[in-house]
User: What shape does this take?
Amino acid sequence: MDKIYIPQILRAPDHTESLRVNQSVRGFQSLTSVQGNVTVAHCGQYLEVAASVETITTLTCDRCLQNYNHRLTVNASELIWLDHLPNVDEDMIDEDLIADDLVETIPSTGYFEPETWLYEYLCLSLPQQKLCDEDCAGIQLDTDNSSPEDAAIVDSRWGALAALKRQTHHLDV
Assistant: This one.
């Protein structure tokens, strides 16, 4: 996706640029291309950006550590304040805008990068808790075929420590 020169949006019909998305997003790992729409509307002193996209990505389950595919859907919108507006009358400023709603600021004669914006919202839309299944039982331990001494060793990487413990135990006796 190419960057959009902000003053160019004013020349578009209804001061709006609509982008059809069907590609991978730089930096975001997904199995399928990101598909959907991004709309950038110039509203005088701010941009109104909205996106409705989806893709499939591979995640790792937090409980069982297995990979699974996850359909990621993003429906996001944001108001972005335009800084240093040339030739703006005080009468044109929308007093209804709450300053807290306009968190991000970009220069009014600069560029808006829809791919970067979309990347950020894709990352924010990833689930906080990644579960392959709601009923995932987690890592299953095979303790049926092991001795009681080995049952205490959950992970084979701890085996060397267990051997050292046995060695020191024999020295203490």
